[in-house]
Amino acid sequence: MKLKKTLNILLIFTFLFSFVPNISMASKGISVIVDGSLIQFDAQPFIDSAGRTMVPVRFVAEKLNATVNFEEKYSKQLVLISKNKLTIQLTIGDEMLTTRTEGVEKPTYTYMDTKPIIKDNRTFIPLRYVVETLGATINWNSTTSTITINSKYIGTEDSSGQRDYGARFEILKPKLGVAPDRKFIFPIKYYDYKDGRIGDDYAEVYSDPACLNKVFASIDLEPSKDYKTASLVISPPVSPTLKKSYNDKYTWGEGTNFYIVFKADIEANKFTKLDKYRRMMFTLATPVDIPTLQFNLSSEGLATLKWSKVEGADEYKVYSGYDDVLDEVITTTKDTQYSSFTPPEHKETINFDFNDRYAVVAVKDGKESRLSNVIDSKDYDQLIPQSMSYKDGDNRIELSYKSFKDLPSTVDLSTLAGYDAPVLPYKVKFDFKNAVKFTRGYLSGYTLPYKILNTPFTGTTEVMCEDKEDALLAELQKSQDKITSNNGVIDPPVPQSTNESKIKEEKPDPKKEDTAEKIKPAKNDLYSYLTENMIKQNKDIDVSAYDEAMDWSYLKDLVFKIFTQEPLVMDAKGFSFDYYNKKLSVTYTPDNDIQSKISAVKAEAKKVISQIITPGMSLAEKEKAIHDYITKSAEYDWEALKNGEKNDYKKVDDIFKDSFNAYGILVKKVGVCASYAASFTLLCREAGIDAITVTGTMNGVGHAWNKFKINEKWYNVDATNNDNREYPVYNASDSSIRPQFVIENDFELDENVEKFMTDDNSQDYFTINKLTANSINDAFALANELAKTKNNFSIKVLSSTPIDGFDIMMNRELIPEGFSCSQPFASVITFIKE
Q1: Where is this region: Disordered (predicted)?
Q2: How many CB atoms are located within 10 Å of the residue 24 CB?
Q3: In whole angstroms, what is the distance from residue 750 CA to residue 155 CA?
Q4: Number of neighbouring beta carbons within 10 Å of residue 55
């Protein structure tokens, strides 16, 4: 049973500092000032046995726009603190803090050295962790026992309030191959013990390049003998954020990259806060190259872990675990993938055992690499099918049907997210060719085999009919032969990072302090530099001038973004990074004519825009002109799609490769969804308007479409599925196209994905044309009005929960007389006069 209370209150921050004053300070009282205002408490904060300041959550929620929720789940009491699209989860009696950002796949986990508690019927939480997770700035004055909190986000923000991480940091020279227990000591030029500064005023440590996932390292100031200077000492945390054993203490753990963020200028002659923080990456030494782990759904809907091959590896181990400890080896294999998450005894469910956090190591000569990146099942549970849904109201295969026309085109599958989560609609294909006729007394009909596409689920149903319907079988089979998964995206191979093991473990001189060395900026930014090289199809790209390229997680995300967002980067298949030689290697599908094709695409884009865009056009008119040109001038390449299906979407034969890039739709006028989306992006750029390509799934299989920018918000546009339809996905919100469409993160750096999301319906084609309804009943009422003057029309239902075929079936008596209606697609129902 879930108990939920929502408090629409405002969030304040209070601080727990690293240097903990003695307990008498608590009796003296701590003053808390938030954004210039002194906070009054009716339940006094206290310092717990771990030395952490605990504050009642009610008062944590008084100064900033936020919501606090309390939930009881699996006999645990949860505290959820939400602001904008960020949610912090704390569990009473548990040290783990979980941070989730809407639109971002991966949550972050922070191990606290204390626990939230309930005292005198009040919930108390450790505020330092909440404060710093949300990015507030904090100062402690030991003389007055005052905590001063500035609630504004660190760094710059764009007009929509999103943090601009690209402008946030000045990058310092990285330190590579450090020991797991490495301690950093930086000299501080100015020090005055009277001002009460502590180590956290100068620096913080994070485990991700965007600096969202804080590592609670020990950060101390050690004054010199004369107290005129000091050293900033940064030591590993008591408990690492990722480890293979609970016994792993006082090390940086199994993570690979960490980031020291300097908030104050350690070289200044007085304490000086930096306007632009400085970030220094350091990497941990590894005896064996580290595999890159990737999640995939197989063509049969099976959760699959895939990883890059490590040269010379004898075998691989897949680790699993919960939170920050991955201590169980679930398999040892020489293969580079694992998908055995369905117990053999489970006949009607799949993926049942995919319910943990996973990482992989390479083993060579008895030595293990560091853990790979972590895949968390919770990040994918709403995408992973589990079984046919049997909830009331969901589409499913019945035991029998009265006639062939009653057969469903889709069925609903439940997911690993659970009973209360939205279902996923999957296409069902019936095998009329192998239908078997039966007669039982006065009943006759056919036993009809079926398969749910992109799953292993098969079965039979019965259709009751008379002999006169036998002739329909051949015609019905023809229609079934046309049913495909609508996939138009080829799965790229898992990217590889190599030669990390060649970077020998650093041996710091114990007599010398560390330096935070600035680097000379490169001539071009890394994104532009890589894009230029990939357009030229250069295979080996030297990135030695870009220290940020040594961050494999960042480089990997950046290359995936280029593959998705740059239409002139054509036929790129995969990539790897040589850590030791600082070289990015990109593989391409061989094509001697590729440069002439790129020139043809650029020329055609200029020609098209000169023909369809005229001076004085509004933004809406330009968008529609580009969209309609694509849908009217090009055709979907069904043969290319079948070829991709034949090859399990791992590759396509050379004759079809252009149908997966902009050359297909723009020049040859035929292509699949990847070509539609790339062409829309390129034409919008040529016209000087903002559009991007996004990737994800539609009905459970890979798909590409676009986002278009209007008034600082990004709306969904799918020219592929708008072709020959009345704009079902045209400036549509994310909520209106769920659950058919699910966006994944490869199209943009993870930390920026959030700003491309919107639930605003104001720009939708159907809203603009007054063809929306708030419920299925309202939709049918509007349909009966429109049926008086129109033969064909569509209506979008913008309800709080997605509509499905069951909604139509239950209200079929409301369908206008003489009309039939389609199954909902992206919340749109189409009515056709019979």
Answers
A1: 484-515
A2: 7
A3: 17
A4: 28
* Four-CA torsion 146, 150, 155, 156, nearest 10 degrees: -160
> What confidence tens digit (pLDDT) does each residue in 149-178 have?
666 544 333 333 333 334 578 889 999 999
Predicted pLDDT of residue 163:
34
CA distance 749 to 755: 11
Q: How far apart are CA 490 and CA 357, in angstroms?
A: 26
150: three-class secondary structure by DSSP: strand
Tally Cβ neighbours within 10 Å of residue 361. Answer: 26
Q: Residues 814-819: contacts with CB within 8 Å, 24+ apart? A: 814/777, 814/780, 814/781, 814/783, 814/784, 815/780, 815/783, 816/780, 816/783, 816/784, 816/787, 817/787, 818/787, 819/783, 819/787
Cα 348 to the center of its chain, rounded Å: 29
- Is the model's pTM score more than 0.85? no
Banded pLDDT at 711 (limits 50, 70, 90) = very high
SS3 113: coil
Q: What's the pLDDT tens digit per position in 773-806?
A: 988 888 889 999 999 999 999 999 987 666 665 5
Question: What is the residue type of 19?
Answer: F
Residue carrying structure tokens 């008591």 = 238
Beta bridge partners of 264: 273
Structure token pair of residue 582: 């600082």
Which phi and psi (to 5°) does residue 379 adopt? -70, -15
Alpha-carbon gap, residue 244 to 263, rounded angstroms: 32
Q: Are strands 670-671 and 635-636 parallel, antiparallel or unpaired?
A: parallel
Q: How far is 309 from 777, CA to CA, in rounded Å?
A: 55
Cα separation, 692 vs 706, in Å, equals 6
In CATH terms, the fold of domain 293-380 is: Immunoglobulin-like (2.60.40)
Contact 666, 605 (CB under 8 A): yes
Using one digit for the tens of pLDDT, what is the confidence trace for 335-380?
999 999 998 888 789 999 999 999 999 999 999 999 999 999 988 8
Strands (E), 495-604: 496-498, 540-542, 572-578, 583-588
The answer to whether 154 and 203 have CB atoms below 8 angstroms apart is no
What is the Cα–Cα distance from 253 to 181, expressed in whole angstroms? 8
Kindly calculate the radius of gyration of the chain based on its CA atoms and give it in whole angstroms: 29
Q: What is the pLDDT of residue 234?
A: 96
Q: In the predicted model, what is the mean pLDDT of residues 612-631?
A: 95
Which tokens sit at 283?
């990497």
| Residue 272 near residue 621, CB atoms below 8 Å | no
**DSSP, residue by residue, 509-526:** -TTS-----B-PPPSS-H
Nearest-angstrom CA–CA distance, 592 and 254: 45
Q: Residue 80: CA atoms inside 13 Å, Cβ hemisphere, count?
A: 20
Least confident range of 344-348, 493-497, 612-616: 493-497
Question: 718, 694 in Cβ contact below 8 A?
Answer: no
Phi, psi of 49 (to 5 degrees): -65, -20
Distance CA 480, CA 474 (A): 10
For the stretch 639-656, pLDDT in tens is 888 887 777 667 778 888
Single-letter residue type at 320: S
pLDDT band at 392 (very low <50, low <70, confident <90, very high): low
Q: What is the DSSP letter of 630?
A: H
- Cβ-Cβ contacts under 8 Å for 127 (sequence gap 6 or more): 13, 14, 15, 16, 45, 53, 54, 55, 60
- Residue 422 CB coordination number (10 Å): 16
Q: How many residues does the chain have?
A: 834
CATH architecture of the region 165-284: Sandwich (2.60)
For residue range 513-530, list pLDDT tens digits in order. 888 888 776 667 899 999
Q: Would you state the structure tokens that stand for residue 581, as one six-digit string?
A: 């030689």
Is the pLDDT at 626 greater than 90, yes or no? yes
The CATH code for residues 4-150 is 3.30.457.10
Name the residue ranges covered by the structural domains of the chain. 4-150, 165-284, 293-380, 386-481, 772-833
Tokens 């992109």 identify what position? Answer: 454
For residue 467, pLDDT beyond 60? no
Query: Can you tell me which residue has the tokens 């952490």?
Result: 52
